[in-house]
Design brief:
The chain is mainly alpha-helical. The protein is built from 14 helices and two strands; from the N terminus they run αβαβαααααααααααα. The longest helix is centred in the C-terminal third of the chain and has 22 residues.
């Protein structure tokens, strides 16, 4: 625990000496089955693999579904155990044609996972190459935390093969952890870079913080906050959205220790708001459906909760109320 608090001190910058966060037992990853149609991106125009890459093929795009996902594979393979009533065909090559609604997601996940494992981990398919877009494929098809954890078991072998992950892969992984309600898996992976080799971007960090901050032990949120410095990200106390998320989590936990952390973050939050023009964070129609809009909604919701918590402590909130009014958050009812 002392190591965690020391890391938090470096990540948050304000002095938090003497603060202890009581560890709570983590529950097992909860199984939640989701249904979502995979996203088809633009088709690759150049299918040649790099000659210098003897294990894995690189590509120009992130096409999720195509015969070229696996270099050298011209023929789709279908698992024999799939119910004949369900189509096991992958979505069509033309991205403008909708994917069939009844294809078997679990069978498709298992097919891609086993092939990737044979190339990356077992190396039983040395002549065939796995494209980087296979990660997005697997994240999208995973419908339970257990399936997603199986995918992460392949990360160390990818790293051992001297391959690196794209920033978008980190962000896709973080989003899927949030969607499957298993952000602790993201904490585990980002917390052991020497094993998994997946860099945490600021976008990914914010996504995981949001997934953690209300429904999971505070220790997980603080552990993730401490990782900001590990990945050379701006400290939590200097990032408006991350700071507001952590503040909300600390106030909600409401223990003596968490309230000490929250109070230490109030002054940096006020300074951040003074440096941020409210108009730049206003919710706009042009941002609808974008990650930027989603994060602005998080900020609007968390600042409302922080204001309420500070009012409960009879502290001055004029600075916060003024900023919320100027940004339009105070009158926003869609939270």
């Amino acid at each position: 625990m002392a190591n965690v608090l020391a890391s938090v001190h470096r990540a948050l910058r304000p002095s938090l000496s003497g603060v202890r966060i009581t560890r709570q037992c983590r529950s097992n990853l909860r199984v939640r089955t989701l249904h979502a149609s995979p996203v088809a991106l633009k088709k690759k125009t150049n299918s040649s693999a790099s000659e210098t890459d003897d294990l894995f093929g690189e590509e120009e795009d992130d096409s999720l579904f195509s015969d070229d996902l696996f270099s050298g594979s011209k023929e789709q393979r279908k698992p024999s155990h799939v119910d004949a009533a369900k189509s096991t065909d992958i979505p069509p090559h033309n991205p403008s044609v909708p994917a069939p609604r009844d294809y078997d997601r679990d069978a498709r996940f298992e097919e891609i996972y086993q092939f990737a494992k044979s190339c990356i981990a077992d190396k039983s398919e040395p002549a065939r190459q796995v494209r980087t877009s296979a990660w997005a494929h697997l994240f999208s098809l995973a419908t339970t935390p257990e399936q997603l954890e199986r995918v992460t078991e392949l990360f160390p072998k990818w790293r051992d093969a001297r391959r690196t992950f794209r920033p978008t892969t980190s962000e896709q992984f973080a989003r899927r952890c949030a969607e499957l309600e298993c952000p602790q898996l993201a904490v585990k992976v980002f917390g052991d870079h020497s094993k998994y080799g997946l860099d945490m971007t600021q976008e990914a960090a914010r996504t995981v913080l949001h997934a953690l901050h209300l429904k999971h032990p505070l220790e997980d949120t603080i552990t993730l906050a401490a990782l900001f410095s590990v990945y050379n990200l701006p400290p939590v106390s200097s990032d408006l959205i991350s700071s507001a998320l952590l503040l909300t989590a600390c106030f909600k936990h409401a223990s003596e220790e968490s309230l000490a952390v929250a109070r230490a973050l109030v002054s940096p939050l006020q300074q951040l708001l003074e440096k941020t023009e409210p108009e730049t964070m206003a919710l706009r129609d042009v941002d609808h459906g974008t990650p930027a809009e989603k994060q602005k909604r998080w900020l609007a919701w968390t600042l409302k909760k922080v204001e309420k918590a500070l009012q409960g402590e009879e502290r001055d909130v004029a600075w916060l109320t003024q900023w919320r009014v100027a940004s339009g958050y105070a009158g926003y009812t869609g939270l």
